[in-house]
Structure formats: C-alpha cells, structure tokens
Design a protein that fits this description.
Blueprint lengths: L5 H4 L5 H14 L5 E2 L11 H12 L12 H15 L8 E4 L2 H12 L5 E6 L4 H8 L3 E6 L10 H7 L4 E7 L11 H12 L5 E5 L25 E6 L12 E4 L2 H12 L7 H12 L3 H22 L14 E2 L20 H12 L1 E2 L1 E2 L9 E4 L4 H17 L2
Parallel strand pairs: 1-10, 3-4, 3-5, 5-6, 6-7
Antiparallel strand pairs: 2-8, 7-8, 9-12, 11-12
The chain binds glutamic acid (GLU).
C-alpha cells in the first residue's frame, strides 16, 4: 500500500515547473532547446536591489524574522498599495510569504473546508485547482472561450455560485492568456458578487506591472463595497525580475491574514530575511526599470503574435498584458508528425514540438482549455526569432 496521502493523490506536479525542468535537463544533456515554458523574466534583478541584499548579509540580517513579514517590508507594501492602487491598508492587513504561490497556498489552506467550492475561470494558472484540491475543496471551473477573449462572463459567474462557494479567483493580467480586465469589466463582475456576501475574492495581481498600450490596471479591492471580502495577492517576482528570491505578499481582511500567519508559523516560519530586505528596496526604490522592461516585452509580444498568425493552422489573440500568448492549434490536431505519430491532443502537439524541433511550451489543457498552447515570451528576441522559425517549420511539416 502506498504511503502517499489520499489528498496528495488528488493532485499532479505543476506542469509549468515540469516543462521548465525538462527543458533544463535537455539543455544540460547538450540538446539545442529553446525554453518558452517558464513564466519568468529573463532580465536580471536590478543592481540597487542586489546591493541591499548583500548589505543585509554583511550586517547580519540573517536571522528569523516576524512570521509573516518584517515591519519594514509590511510598511513598504502598505505604501505600494496606497501609491499604485489608492488602497488603504494597515500593517495588520498585510502578509508576506515565500513567493506568491505560498501566499495563495496558505490562504486556501487556511480557509477551505472539505467540500467548499472555489470558482476558477479557465484558462487558469495551473496551481489554483490543485491547491484547492489539496485543501479538500472542489474547484468549479468556468470555461472562458477564445471568442470571449478568455475572460469571465458575469452571467457565467452568477450561474456558478452556490451556497458552498467560498472563493472566486481572479487573475488580471492573466497567466496563461495575457488577458486584462478593464475597470468596467471588473465592475460588472463586482455587481454579481455584491449579491453573494458569503463569497470571498482572491485577486492574483502578480502581473500588474506588465501591460501594454496604456492599459490602466484596476483591481477588485478598489471597489469599496467589496474590499472587506478581497484578498489581493502580489509579489516582486515578475515586476522586479526576482523569481528566485521568493517573495510574495497579500493584503486583506485581518481574520484571513492572521489565519495565514498561523499556517506559516507551522511551515516555513518566515520568508528569507535577505530576500525581504531586497523586496523593501524593490518597492521603495526607483521604479524606472518597470516601464523600460515593459517596452521590451511589448516588442516581443508584437513579434511573436505576428509570426504565429502567419502560420497556417495557428490563430493567436494579441493580449494586453503579462508575458504570455495562448495560441489556438486546434486545426493542427489530428495530423501526423514526421515520425508518423498522430497528434491527437495539445499535449501530443507540445511533446512533439519539444522532441522534434527543441522548443518547450506548455499545453493548453494544463491550464484548463484544450486545443491551445502557452508561449512565454520572457526571453531574448534572438531566442524568439529562432523559436518562431522552428515552430513554423514544425507546423508546416504536419500532414
Ligand atoms: N508562474 C510561472 C508560470 O506559470 C512560474 C512557474 C509556476 O510557478 O507555475 O510559469
């Protein structure tokens, strides 16, 4: 009999992490692989941030910290919410964890009971449903189609809410589609939630700073009548190219914040003291870095979308944010690759793409929508040019 728990058997390993790991291994084995699987900026962490981290080490800031974040970092987060989102929070409404993923994990573990429902619009980030399952909850998936720009329709949300609904998870700019919700669209979702006071909202804002063409970011906690029911999650990973430092944070109702701290006190104790010092500098220091890098991301997006749409059988929307595109490859499914294997599903498609031409992407079904794949264009233009040529040749070779 297996020692593995029943709850762990409900989940699978993260597919985004798995493809990143596979690409890493193939490269280490000397294979020519272009990784467009990992959702992390290729840029380096800015020097001012690194410098503060080195100072933290040299001055002995190397001990345990307060469980859910140092007072200095919590203050910087309070200031960030005021400065960028016009949201007022007090220190005791802030929590810091080892990455956005841990904050979401803690929040769901702390609040979801067996049988509780969590509404997740698909395409979704791969980890939401599995964390819900691990907590004993039931993910309620609402499919948001390409025709609707992969966005949640308010009436679909209304129809999915039951007495058991505990949370709705929102994510804009979205991973994996890059879709961004305007203020107006968020207000329409808020109107539905207004009538269901037992439902809480987890807003994953990790891609806040990566958007294009003057898109105006708006987050659901800015709607006054909902603020008491919203947990707003964010972090330094994507905005400041700090994925490896593992610092995520959230703001929300004190009861949830306290519950999160209780879990953290029994798991990781606190996020790394050095990374927290660095995150203070990221949030309080110069922000010029963000707009400069957004420009580079926009160029890459334009290139990738236009090249993908030149390929017969591929259709790709042009998203307003994040560093992902989510092309449709349904017309290519059912064809045979060079080895004569039928590519029946998007999983077959991405596996063949990796094995035959060495380009790593993630299948749409991992994000809850079959017939698509996700490209992360957070890599150099040179890599993107090579990769798009290979994808094009691969698609042309299918018979
Ligand atoms: N969020 C990124 C992605 O989707 C990082 C990997 C992960 O944690 O899923 O690729």
């Amino acid at each position: 009999m297996s020692i593995v728990s029943k709850s762990l058997k409900r989940i699978k390993p993260s597919p985004t992490i798995a493809v990143t790991q596979k690409a890493r291994e193939l490269k280490a084995a000397g294979k020519d692989v272009i990784g467009l699987g990992a959702g992390e900026p290729d840029f380096d962490t800015p020097d001012n941030i690194k410098k503060v981290a080195i100072e933290a080490i040299n001055t002995g800031d190397t001990k345990y910290t307060a469980v859910d974040g140092t007072p200095a970092l919590k203050k910087a987060i309070v200031k960030k919410f005021k400065r960028e989102n016009n949201l007022d929070y007090t220190i005791d409404q802030i929590t810091v964890g080892s990455g956005g993923k841990q904050v979401i994990y803690n929040a769901l573990m702390a609040t979801v009971d067996i049988g509780d429902e969590v509404i997740i619009p698909a395409p979704y980030w791969v980890s939401y449903p599995d964390i819900v399952l691990l907590a004993g909850g039931e993910p309620i998936i609402i499919k948001c189609t390409e025709e609707k720009n992969f966005k949640l329709n308010p009436s679909d949300l209304e129809n999915s809410i039951t007495k058991k609904t505990k949370w709705v998870i929102l994510n804009s700019p979205s991973n994996p589609t890059g879709a961004c919700y305007s203020e107006n669209e968020i207000k329409k979702i808020a109107e539905v939630l207004k009538n269901h006071p037992h439902v809480h909202i987890l807003s994953d804002d990790i891609y806040e700073h990566i958007s294009y063409e003057g898109f105006k970011f708006f987050t659901i906690a800015q709607i006054e009548y909902l603020k008491d029911r919203v947990l707003t999650m964010n972090g330094v990973s994507k905005s400041y190219a700090m994925t490896g430092w593992r610092i995520g944070y959230a703001a929300g109702p004190k009861e949830i914040i306290k519950a999160i701290a209780k879990i953290q006190s029994q798991s990781t104790t606190n996020p790394s003291s050095i990374s927290q010092a660095a995150a203070v500098e990221a949030l309080n220091g110069t922000q010029t870095f963000i707009s400069e890098r957004s420009k580079a991301f926009q160029e890459r997006r334009d290139f990738v979308v236009s090249e993908l749409n030149k390929i017969s059988g591929i259709n790709c929307l042009k998203p307003e944010g994040a560093f992902y595109v989510f092309p449709n490859c349904k017309d290519l499914l059912g064809k045979k690759n060079k080895k004569g294997h039928f590519l029946k599903t998007d999983t077959d498609f991405v596996q063949s793409l990796l094995e035959d031409v060495g380009v790593a992407v993630v299948q749409g079904s991992a994000f809850g929508l079959e017939g698509f794949f996700r490209i992360s264009y957070a890599t150099s233009m040179e890599n993107l040019k090579k990769a798009l040529m290979k994808i094009s040749d691969f698609c042309k070779s299918l018979k």
